[in-house]
Amino acid sequence: MKLKQIAQATALIVFLAGAAQAQVSDGTVKIGVLTDLSGVYSDVAGPGTVIATQMAIDDFVAQEKPKFKVEMVSADHQNKGDIAANKAREWFEKDKVDVVSELVTTSVALAVQKIAADKNKIALISGAASTAVTNESCNNVTVHWTYDTYAVANGTAKAVTQGGGKKWYFLTADYAFGHALEKDATAVVKANGGEVLGSVRHPFPGTDFSSFLLKAQASGAQIIGLANAGGDTINSIKQAAEFGINETQSLAGLLMFITDVHALGLKATQNMYLTEGFYWDFNEETRAWSKRFFEKHKRMPTMVQAGQYSSIMHYLKAVKASGTDDTAKVMTQMKKTPVNDFFAKNGSIRDDGRMVHDMYLLQVKKPAQSKSPWDYYTVKAVIPAAEAFQPLSKSSCPLIKK
Amino acid sequence: MEIFGIPVQALMGQLLLGLINGSFYAVLSLGLAIIFGLLNIINFAHGAQYMLGAFAALLGLQYLGVGYWGALLLAPVVVGVLGVVIEKTMLRHLYKLDHLYGLLLTFGLALVAEGVFKNLFGVSGESYAVPEILQGGIRVPFMYLPIYRAWVVVAALAVCLAAWYTIERTSLGATLRAATQRPDLVQALGINVPVMITATYAVGAALAGFAGVLAAPIVQVNPVMGSNLIIVVFAVVVIGGMGSILGSIVTGLGLGIIEGLTKVFYPEASAVVIFLIMVLVLLVKPAGLFGKQA
To answer: Would residue B290 count as lying in a domain?
Structure first.
C-alpha cells in the first residue's frame, strides 16, 4: 500500500516537473497568418506573406533548434473586418493559435488587435497602414511592424516639399485609410512651409480617375498627392500620364509598393518619390534574403512581406529566450530585445506597440537606368528610426504616460 | 462664366469625360441587352469576358506580337469562341429553366475566370501601352483631350450603331428576333435556330471582349477590372429596360454623363448616383426607360 502511494507521488512529481519544464503550451507554437489572399492587397501582402512566414519558421528551426514545435495556419480575410475577427476568435479559442499576424487593411487590423487583447494573445501587424493601430486603438499585445501612414507620408511629403514642391492637391480614397494618409501628409506639407490647395475624394475602389485628375490639374498645384493605394494608385498614375498631367505637375504616391511600380512599369513612374520600409537591393543582406524569397515566390518581396518574416523571427526568438509562450512574458522579451536582421538595424518596439526602424526615401529610376528586372529604385535617403515615425510626444495611445 | 460655382470650361471637360465613360457603359450594356433580349440569359460572365478581352490583347502582344489593331479584331474573336463553347456545353441546357439558373451559372464562370487569372497574374495586373498613332492629345478649347479617348468614343459609337442596325433593321436581325419569339415556327421555315442562338451569345460576348481591348490602354489590365465595372453596367441595363438594344446604348451614354457631373459637384456620391437613379426608375417605370411592359 505504502509503496503504491510513493510510486504515485513520484509519478505526480515527475509529471509536474515535466510540465514545468515545457512551458510552451502543448510544446507547440502556432502562428496564424491572416491576410488578403485573393483581393486588392494580395500582391502587396497575400500569399507572399505566407511564404515569408514559412521561411521564418524554417530558418528559426534550423538555426535555433528549439525544444518546441512551430506550426503555421493561414486564412483569407477578404479585407473584411468581421470575417477577420471571426477567424481570429476561432483560431484563439479552438485552434490554440498563439499569435495572429500580417493583417493588411486597417479595418481588419483594428478588429483583430481588439480580439487579441480580449483573448490575451499577440497580434503582429505588417500590412495595415493606419497610425490608429498604435494611437487611439493601441494595446499591449499588438506590434505594428513594417510601416504606417505617418512614416510613408512623412518621408515622401517632406522630401518633395523641401525639394520645392510647395503647393499640394490631394487625390484621396474616400475611406478611413485615405483620410488618415491625407491628414498625415497635410501636416508634413504645412510643417515644411508648403500649402494645401484642396483635395478631392474618390470612391473606393475606382476605375476612372480622369475627372478627379482634371480637378487636380485645374487647382494649379505643383504636386498632386495620391492618398490612395493599390489599384487606385496604379490607375491614377496611368491616367495622369494619359492626360499629360505629369508634364506640368508632379505626382507623389504617398503609399506605394514595389509591386505597384512593377505593374505600371518605369516609363509611367520614373522620377516619382516614395517611401518604403524595405528595398530588396539595399545591401548584401537584403539581396541575399530577397533572392531566396524570389526563388519561392517568383517576385521580389514587398516591404510587407519582408517585415512579416522579420516580425515572426523576432517573436519566435523571444519565445525561445523566455522559455514560454505566455503573452506578457513574450511581449516583454520582444520589447527589450533590439531587432537586428536584414529588415531592420537596431529596430525597437515602443510601449505603444510601434516597431521603429529606418525608413527609405526612394526615387523610381528612369527606364535607361534600370539594369535588371526589379531594379527600380535609387535610395535617396535613409530616414533614421527616430525621425521616421510619429514621436511619442504626439501619441494618443493611453499606454503612453506623459 | 460659371454654373453653380463651377467654371463652364471645367464643366465641359467633365461632360466630355462622362461621355467617354458612357461609351464603355454603352458597349457593355449593349452586349448584355442582346444576350438578355434574345436569349433570356442574364450574363453575369460579361465582366469576366471584358477582362478576357483586355488580357487577350495584352498576352497577344507579349507572346505573339499582335499589336493593338490586330487585337481589336482578334480578341473579340477569341472571347466569342469561348462564348460558343460556354453556350454549346452549358448555357444551352438552361433556356427552359428560370432566369436565375443562367445567372448563377455565368456568375460561377466569372468567379472561376477571375480566380484563375488572379492566380496566374496577381491582382496588380500589367500596363498596356496606348498605340503609337493614338498617343498624345489635342487641345480643345476647354481641355486637353487625349487622342485615344476621342478614338474610344468614335469606335464605341460605331460598334453600337452597327449592332443596333443589324438587329433592328436587317433581315438577319428580323430572323433572329423571330427565332427567339417563336423558335418552333422559324425552325419549320428551314432556319437553323440553335446555331443562331449560339451566334448571338458569341456576339454578345465578343462585344464585351471588344470593350476590354478598348479599355486596356486606359485602365490597368488586371483580373478584377471586370467585376469593378459589371455591377454599374447591370444597373445601366436595368435603367434602360432589360433587353432593349437602343435603350441600353442611350442609357449607357446618358448615365456616363450624369456620373461625370456628379464627380464635379459631389464626388463622394459618384459611386452611388447610378444606383439611386436605378431605384427611382424602378419605382416609376418598373420595366425600365425603354422597356416594354411584359
So the answer is: no
DSSP designation for B133: G
* Residue environment code for B50-76, b if the CB has 16+ CB neighbours within 10 A, otherwise e: bbbbbbbbbbbbeeeebebeebbebbb
The CATH number that applies at residue B279 is 1.10.3470
A212 CB neighbours in chain B (<8 A) are 263, 267
- Domain assignment present for residue B292? The answer is no
Domain with CATH 3.40.50.2300 in chain A: 28-147+282-357, 150-276+359-388
pLDDT of residue B177: 87
According to DSSP H, which parts of chain B are helical? 8-39, 46-59, 68-89, 99-121, 147-169, 171-181, 183-188, 193-215, 225-240, 245-265, 273-284
Q: Which CATH superfamily is domain A28-147+282-357 in?
A: Response regulator (3.40.50.2300)
**Which pTM value belongs to this model?**
0.87
Q: How large is the average pLDDT for residues A160-188?
A: 93
Are A259 and B122 inside 8 Å of each other by CB? yes
Nearest CA in chain B to A204: B271
A107-121, B16-30, B136-150: lowest mean pLDDT where? B136-150
DSSP state of A271: T
The whole-number pLDDT of residue A9 equals 60
Q: Which of A205, A212, A259 sits opposite B228 (nearest CB)?
A: A205
A174/B264 touch (CB, cutoff 8 Å), yes or no: no
Cell representation of residue A365? 529610376
* Comparison of pLDDT for B103 and B2, the residue scoring more: B103
Interface test with A, best of B14, B24, B123 (most A CBs within 10 A): B123
Flag if B124 and A263 touch (Cβ within 8 Å).
yes
| Pick from A211, A212, A231: CB nearest B222 | A231
Window B:142-201, CB contacts with A under 8 Å? 143-144, 146, 148-149
Number of domains into which chain B is organized: 1
In a domain, B277, yes or no: yes
CATH superfamily, domain A150-276+359-388, is: Response regulator (3.40.50.2300)
Using pLDDT thresholds of 50, 70 and 90, give the confidence band for residue A5: low
**A260 grid coordinates:** 505597384
Q: Backbone phi, then psi, for A206, in 5-degree steps?
A: -110, 165
Domain annotation covers residue B132: yes
Please report residues of B whose CB lies closer than 8 A to that of A265: 127
Would you call B124 an interface residue with chain A, using a CB distance cutoff of 8 Å? yes
CA distance B257 to B272: 14
- List, as ranges, residues 50-89 from B with C-beta within 8 Å of A: none
Cβ atoms B290, B244 nearer than 8 A: yes
Alpha helices (H) in A220-362, listed in sequence order:
230-242, 245-248, 258-264, 266-269, 284-297, 303-322, 327-336
User: Domain limits at B69?
Assistant: 2-284
- Distance from the B90 Cα atom to the nearest Cα atom in chain A, whole angstroms: 27
Residue A17: its pLDDT value, please?
46
Each residue's pLDDT tens digit, A323-372: 999 999 999 999 999 999 999 999 999 999 999 999 999 999 999 999 99
Whether the predicted pLDDT of A19 surpasses 90:
no
pLDDT reading at A23 higher than 60? yes
